[in-house]
Amino acid sequence: MTEQSGSESGPAHKTLEIGMALLIGAFGLVVIFGSLKAGINWGAEGPRAGFFPFYVGAAIVGASAINLWSAQRGDDGRLFASWGQLRQVMSVVVPTAIYVGSMPFIGLYVASMVFIAWFMRWLGGYRWLTVIAVAVGMPVLTYLVFERWFLVPLPKGPFEEWLGL
Amino acid sequence: MEELANLFHGFAVALQPYNIMLMIIGITLGVIIGVLPGLGGANGVAILLPLTFSMPPTSAIIMLSCIYWGALFGGAITSILFNIPGEPWSVATTFDGYPMAQQGKPGEALTAAFTSSFVGALFAVIMITLVAPLVAGFALRFGPAEKFAVYFLAFCSFVGLSKEPPFKTIAAMMMGFALAAVGLDSITGQLRLTFGVTELLNGFDFLIAVIGLFGIGEILLTMEEGLAFRGGNATINLRVVLQTWRELPAYWMTSLRSCLIGCWMGVTPAGATPASFMSYGIAKRLARRGNNFGKGEIEGVIAPETAAHAAGTSALLPMLSLGVPGSPTAAVLLGGLLIWGLQPGPMLFVEQKEFVWGLIASMYLGNLAGLIVVLTCVPIFAAILRVPFGIIAPLILVLCAIGAYSVHNSTFDVMLMLVFGVLGYLLKKCNYPLAPLVLAIVLGDKAEEAFRQSLLGSHGSLGVFFSNGLVSTIMALGLVALFWSAIQEGYSRLRTSMA
């Protein structure tokens, strides 16, 4: 997967490895900071709220330091992924982020229709007829299964209100 | 034989028409989940968990555990027909299953895989039936220190047994503990680690983490490879099935060995994936035709499938009897118990007899139903696989979003799911294991509670964890598991630096 021929370029695996170790280490520092705020010593009721997470945070920082050390030591020249592969990944992440972000405003159903249609049309290259069939069919089926059969409410927007659902 | 009576009572519960219907639905959904890339046992169960909130707990666990059995069966279909493991534990099945399919023997390979799965599961269920009540009875005497020691052992075995570097396992696991700690502290009622964000008051829900890490993360990994998908054909008929069944008893030794490996790896939280690899490796070394492994040897299908299914099933033993799940999917099921208002652990066997024995009985029936379903419906499931990923991917993403939303009816959770998804992709690419992370989120609060209660009892002295024979033994085992990997690591480093 990540072993690439020389013609393709991309970020080195080592860079990402180091970045990941730093990111997790930073998360550990945040945990330690938060634990200190909650109190890590003994109170009237025994160990205080930050007691356990403090040591968890310390373990994260410690483990990340070792991971960082071993990441910057070994360099096998492997790529994390080629730019083309990362573009593929981003072409899913970005629209999914927009989909998720728009859900509170336009509801799950409309957002899903647009998202499925976009995905199938631009990434899959399907005919409009197929696209519309799936993009409309799936939310309708979801509505029937979740809201009608199992009585699980899903977020709705102005469109559903207009339909009176 | 009180257990036997309980088991028969359990069969009566599981054989109710409503429960049988749920069983079939669960198996079918499970196989579909196992066949599709990006939907695995753990996050498939997580997505469907909200649908069970209104069901009686026994029916709910029957359906959800059947999804799990179905996913275990389904993983084999894609491995054999398409050389694409639908689940990580079926990777080892591709080694010999796919060559067999290419040699025109897909029916034999599938029959061998399904039957071995069934044998492995059956072995594990019988073990659960016999051993679980004993373990639970024993565990009833556990105090907080012993409880913490069991958690300690479980998490240490992760560090010792996983094939990922130990410090990455520790980092991932501790991240899980930290995420579990966010929100209201259950003992003092104090808020912690929320940094003023009101959405974090209730902490991180592990279901969101599971759906993000396993579901979205897996889709992103698949997207790397592009949308191309190779199709294949499968036929399986009664003649092939019967003929293969006649051959299988000759490999009883491999089966038995794989069952034992699977049960062992399932009870310790190593899980189905290492079990299948280990079983394959040992079978390859010991089999008479071991040199032919990798070229389409039926024994190379039997070994990993039996072990994976035995491990997947026996992962429910510690979950039921100790409240410590042996796999991510078992962890999700354990989360389900909490949501349905049941306290997992030894008290289940005393207070919720109908639930426990209904579940155990459904394991027998569910796996039998699963075997019948997969043997008869392989062509249909193979057809699902031929639906292009360009259609499947957005549908799975939408399903994940729906699942994440319906846990708490919160759109914030859906965004969190995406964050977990990207994180899961990066972690997986950088070789951090996800299972201990998820297990730590599930068990974090309970482990911490046991830890603090023990310390309260001993006024802060860590000596409480070595205060009697039982707790010392469990702790010592945990320490051995923990440092086992450190010793190995040091040893291999020494060797590489010498070389």
UniProtKB/TrEMBL annotation, chain A:
Keywords, sorted A to Z: Membrane, Transmembrane, Transmembrane helix
Domain DUF1468, residue spans: 22-155
Q: Which residues form a coiled coil?
A: none
Q: Does the keyword Electron transport apply?
A: no
Q: What is this protein called?
A: Tripartite tricarboxylate transporter TctB family protein
Q: Which Pfam families match?
A: TctB
Q: Which residues cross the membrane?
A: 21-40, 52-71, 92-120, 126-146
Q: Which domain of life is it from?
A: Bacteria
From TrEMBL, chain B:
Pfam entry (one): TctA
**Superkingdom of this protein's organism:** Bacteria
Keywords from the named record: Membrane, Transmembrane, Transmembrane helix
Q: Which residues form the DUF112 domain?
A: 20-439
Q: Transmembrane segments in this chain: where? A: 20-49, 61-82, 109-136, 148-163, 169-188, 200-221, 322-343, 355-381, 387-407, 414-443, 463-487
Q: What is the recorded name of this protein?
A: Tripartite tricarboxylate transporter permease
In its UniProt entry, the species of origin is given as Bradyrhizobium cajani
Q: What is the lineage of its organism?
A: Bacteria, Pseudomonadati, Pseudomonadota, Alphaproteobacteria, Hyphomicrobiales
